[in-house]
Amino acid sequence: MDRETQINDETLDRLLNAADTPSSNDQFKAQLLSDFEAEIGRARSGSRARLFSWSGFWSPSQLFASLRAGPGGLGGALTHKLAPKLATKLAPKFAPVAAACATVFLAVSGFSTGAATANASNDAELYAYADETVTAFLDSGSSVVLEDLWAED
Amino acid sequence: MASDWETDEALVARAGAGDRLAAGELIVRHTDKIMASCYRMLGDRSSAEDATQETFLRLWRHASRWRPQGAKFETWLYRIAMNICLDRLRKKKREAPEEAAPEQIDTGLRADEAMAVDDTRRIVEEAIAELPERQRLVITLRHYQELPQREAAEIMGISEQAVESLLARARRSLREKLMPQRDVLYEGRA
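The joint structure predicted for all components is written out below.
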């Protein structure tokens, strides 16, 4: 480049091209694939806890306790945000499971007592129902998790 | 089983239905570009690798949501990657606000190799690292990934006109940053 002139477009392009842009290597790719497989394996373990706790989400008991705090609390806000998404975003592919999950959320947070009595009459039944629906959801091969539903409007 | 002739769009549709081989094939195809872009945004290899991994995990989780009539698959993937990079940069800034100084580029070289790193490259990399996030992003997408203006706009969530103007500002900033070093750059014959 001519030291007497400004840096023109062509020179700037050439300079930018001189900057190193490392690509991935084979070892990294292999590691990436292996980590990926492990993550999928964990996601499909059928564990209710895994679904709820993915990416630092609350444990099931924390989540349910918070939901029980009522519509005015954080649990209520969560339910307001999550339940409609569970019901609509997963449809139509996972409609039955999504609807069931939404029912559980609505029921435990007190938004819909009808749904609670329709599906479970006590905590144990409710948890069992949640387990069934979430396990069915995971078994369906879906990779959609609560984190995703929470993240985007 | 994934094949070379399958389009990205076909593969992501299969990945969305839970086909991990299809997702693996997408990883193999796109890791290099995503890794390079993340490196350009984050400035060090280790963070770039983490962001790349997160990008593909997010791809897997969201694959069922991708629709062929929406954004092109690659555009969508870049958007995921660049959002992850921006989140990381912001988090880093929040955690260490006093460290407003530009990041040092980690070339991933040993000390003796680093000694031999070309001055031109180092100066240019530092200048890029000093750019504001969005200017760095537009340089990454338009110059390094050679994406069309329309795709860059889609990834960044702004208009094509805004991309053009941002790119012009980024290039002007780079010129200003590089000008004081022009003697070294001249010697380096970039």
